[in-house]
């Protein structure tokens, strides 16, 4: 696997920058510090992995990165814009335009076809008004993941690996700044998992910025920058 | 067992909203179910509490004249039919009225009935003390005897066990008390709904006995009950009784040209039909409305149970993963439902008990047989069935959305909610049913309310404020002819001298029942049958009934009983298309001529829809009724009136002393009760619709939690989500509203054909908008769960 754009990106401002991020969950009796004073920068074209044991805070970190949750303290910047305290509407816009999310359990909408699932993010994007353009873009993305022949199928008519590739196409369709990938092979057998990771590698080779969260060191090693999250503290692996 | 029940109770206490809503809604629904079904059974299926009640009939005597039909007997006609043994196994004459009982404290005016002994034997009346009437107290035996009600015995005689053979005085005649009716005695409501006769007297002393020899006068109070022979259908007697009545009557009025073209039709009706009356559609409406409400409640609670099952997803999945079978899961849901439904049924049962009391207290004038309504075996049986049926219904429904296979695997994957699914068709179907029922009920209630509003705001055409009517009776029953004028005149003077009196005159009350007076236009010979009453010179002035043309009777007109009549607007239009009937002459027999000297505006009673032709003549000097108008904020108590009357003549009693306004309010009371019940039904229906839509939308959004979170994760804003949630059911909602529009138009045409279309559309549009607004509000409230919390939480919570 090649990684030929490190030197270029290191000189640019990071796409994602976390500064001193902490996350504390309050339950009735216990205060749980999941993330503590965490700093992280992701530059254009980087492929980073974050690994760690269960309960280490990986999913929480990914939720914060994907604006699915807010940090208790600290600053979060995407493309230099502070995003940790945006309104619901503005953070939706950022998620739609800057972030592509790939879920462990695919999270495809059952009643929509494969193509409609992929078109969905663009339907929420005010810049995409032309339905034909949306369709063409979605078809392009499905081609990228090798599923153009399945575009009219329903998700439940596809295998797990195919469903995850639809998830990747959906994440790609809005040309986001970064792909956030949550245990993409967690619900797949190893063969399907390998296929999915091949797609991710291919995307990275084409310039995509990827942040992969996994507990599997085998897949974590595929990234060029590897972090390890342990007890809420992020360290370079 | 106790431990697991305690655990279950604790779990339900945690789910306060769910448990409270289920118990409140289902206790109301079960109470309505128990009440409506017990009532429906009583009215429609239960035989009357009299032996062979199917054979007991009321025979109506209908005169068919050129002016229309009049339902009344001639006295000798009634006696002739009573004496005729060919038609009935048994027959009884009856006359229901009110009398002043001078032997009781304060000389109260009490409901009385004059009957022949067969009346009690036909309905097998039981006595607490003594007996009912014997043959020796029958027709033309002239034995003054009385049977009193249990209630009167309790109220006026303090349950005196030695009451038998004591006397009771009515119209200066002493009636010997021969019996006290049993507490369980149910009076057949053949005269009027809610009638409650306190004293039963022997027939020969009835107040219409002076008509015994005349075949020309009719009396609407005369009633004939008969028991048909076994195997004879009551309807089959109509023709032969009609022929007999007609032949007999015609032979008596032969040669009188006035009665040419008149005929008599007899109509025999089972007393059950008589008691249910023509307003039976009200009963059906009440029952249909109640069942509609129960249906809405059940749909709502189904939604809540589905929502609860969705909430129970995790514990159910864990149990399934640990080896619980589908039956075990069903038991889990069943136990929870059973606790809630049992509690609801107990509460519903108690509510029904009180509802029966309320109905008996307030609606006896509206619904028949309410005195027989009580908690009975059927009510208890229905309550027990309710527990099992509703528990089973909700448990089965809940388990039906559990996909056991998916549930087992759910714990091994993160396929959130995969094991519990409600199809979108089912969700939309439930919502449509709910919205449909709500709109139909609200539209129906609005139409009823509109009618009631019209009644309450109806211009009656006369003033009732501060006006009282007094009816006098004489201790000897018959008034001494020569002294009457003097006594009434003295009393009039005495009342006039009171500083509180504005006007007092000899006159009937505007609310008194009127006679029908058959009369002809002397010029055209056309016959008319207006309602007739006698009035004084100041009558129209006192009650502020407006003159359209002509003038009121003068004092001389009244004193001399001049042959003048005043008619109302409706009658004037019947007589002359332009309504100008002043100067026209009317004659009842071709000899006596009455000239129309005035036309007054129409007057109505509460609830009266059509205008009725009316005619007024100057009051006779022997009139024993007075109309008094007091000055503003002034009045006269009954005891003061009794003192004044006694000072004029100790023989004179106050038969009635009524405030016209209070009597009008009494007439309006049933409408007010229906109005309140309708408003309650409408509010309850709206409340249930809100709960139902909320429940449906809530669990529907919970089921879509993961989907909504995914959409938000890929960039859907809160506005996108709310818009999608709103439009998800919008099509079904609009289709439902259209179906409800068509259905309610058809239903309104059938049930209330005179509802104005503009008002119907207004109520329909209002209720539809209300439902849509409720829906929008519910969507916004339920979607706050997603838009007000981190999206990551939505992935983790179903």
Automatic annotation (TrEMBL), chain B:
Keyword Cell membrane on this protein? yes
- Fetch the Pfam families from UniProt: FtsX, MacB_PCD
Q: Where would one find the signal peptide in this protein?
A: none
Give the way it sits in the membrane. Multi-pass membrane protein
Where does it sit, as one GO cellular component term?
plasma membrane
Q: Which UniProt keywords apply?
A: Cell membrane, Membrane, Transmembrane, Transmembrane helix
Q: Give the transmembrane region(s).
A: 20-45, 282-306, 338-359, 380-402, 431-449, 673-696, 732-752, 759-781
Report domain MacB-like periplasmic core positions: 19-240, 438-634
Q: Which organism is it from?
A: Pseudoalteromonas amylolytica
For this UniProt entry, the molecular function terms from Gene Ontology, in alphabetical order, are: transmembrane transporter activity
Q: What's the protein name?
A: ABC transporter permease
Q: Does the keyword Cell membrane apply?
A: yes
Report which superkingdom the organism of origin falls in: Bacteria
Instruction: Return the InterPro entries for the record.
Output: ABC3_permease_C (IPR003838), MacB_PCD (IPR025857), Macrolide_Exporter_MacB (IPR050250)
Localization of this protein: Cell membrane
Q: Where is the ABC3 transporter permease C-terminal domain?
A: 291-397, 679-790
Family from the record? Belongs to the ABC-4 integral membrane protein family.
